[in-house]
Amino acid sequence: MTDYDADLEKLVARRASRWIEELQEGTPQERSAFVAWLKESPANVRNFLLLSMIDQSLEDVDPERSHDVDALLATLDPAVIELPRLQTRPVITKPRRPRWIVALTAAAACVIGGSAIAWYMRDHREPAWRVFETATGEQRAFELEDGSLLHLNTHSRAAIHFSANGRDVRLLEGEALFRVQHDAGRPFRVYTQEAVIQAIGTQFNVYERPQGTSVAVIEGRVDIEPTAAAPRVIAGARPSSSSANLPASRGRIVRSSEEAEISHQGEVSVHADPDVANAVAWQKRRLVFRQQTLEFIAAQFNRYSRKQIRIEGAGIANRVYTGVFDADDVDSFAQALASDPRLGVEESAQSIVITSR
Amino acid sequence: MLSDRLNLHAARLAQSAFSEHSAVLRRFLTSRVGNINDIDDLVQEVFTRLLRVRDTELVRDPLAYLFGIAANVAREFLQRRYQDSVIFDSEVADRTPADHERLTEGGVAERVELRDQLNRALIKLPPTHRLVILLVKRDGLSYAEASHTTGLSVHTIEKYLVEARALLRLMLAGKERRP
What we know:
The complex is a heterodimer. Chain A is α+β, with helices and mostly antiparallel strands.
């Protein structure tokens, strides 16, 4: 069984499992959709039969009641608890690239200090390329000035230039996940060695590899234009004019759940990657803070973690931070705070104490 | 909650469609006497017969049709297998059931076998998946009650259940594919 077959099998099994739920409602539309799905392929029939059998048999499961529900409840991962009061977004990860998942869970998410925001404000009128980068083992999420999110994977570098006519990103190295805010007047374009990727939809992953560029579309669609002459980026330089006049129609459209490979020669191959928009997304919860006080952020973490954050320094509770964090990883927040020279961070098994320096 | 109770009712109805034919289907699907090709053959035959039923007809009660057809096919296959056995193996022939009833009744051994497989697979599920299965399936809680117990939303409970079931099916497939 190839990886692709295994992924497909997973997908069909999940779909079949979902039908069992959906058929409980049993509207005529759903029944009709179900019939169409059954008639699609024997694999669907096979999976639905097996899933039905499993579903029924599960009622006989664990007859000795050897599993302790209370113990499981106690270990309930705080990351899966819903955070209705916060702007949270599921992390979209590519399951076939586990290092990205590892990075997302393990690595410290970033805090863009007030200084970075201020930097943007100041330089907004003089467009220049701004470089974002991560060290090896580090993983960061940046909120861009238009509200788009840029997640940089480990050892990655991207340069960004926003103007009135467009939003240009040069992926210099590594891998980035983009969640793009819609702005029809300012196309969002990502340049790699091999191609220009223009976002028509909202969410996609770009990976610059030695052998070429991979683009996976999670949501919406992107337009890929192979090019040997992606604009060279020098920090502080203006983008070349060619980038602004890109004809959108010549490119190759890649839709959600598809992945494209672009070679050095400019060949684009597109294949279906049904696991791109994987259901694992809901398993991970993020905390997104925009210009929130340290006190507020600490309170949110304290709601979901046994390890409690205490703020002891005078006048730091109202300090404002922006950042994206894994809800289940309070340590990443502590590490991020530790990088602020104005703060002292003392971490023990039970608590994190933040003091003023 | 009324909607929850209605759901449960509908679920029982849907289950009864399977329950009605479950003995023969379970016997077939978990059958270790047969092999993986048998299951593929069965599925192919069920699929072919499904295609012959008009959509308007199927949509009325798809589950009853599907399980009904599957049970018929399974019954035919099991019969044929016993007949084949007679030709090749006199010992098996001795154990061949005298009448068709034996093909569909009981299935206790398969039921226990499947339950044991599921119990083993359950341990390998991530904790939250396992928790939701235990609450909803073993303990028979409604989604609303499970939601109340765990602090997860009903929607999330449902998602875990869907995912857990799919994972279990994939784990069982590993076994099933063993020669």
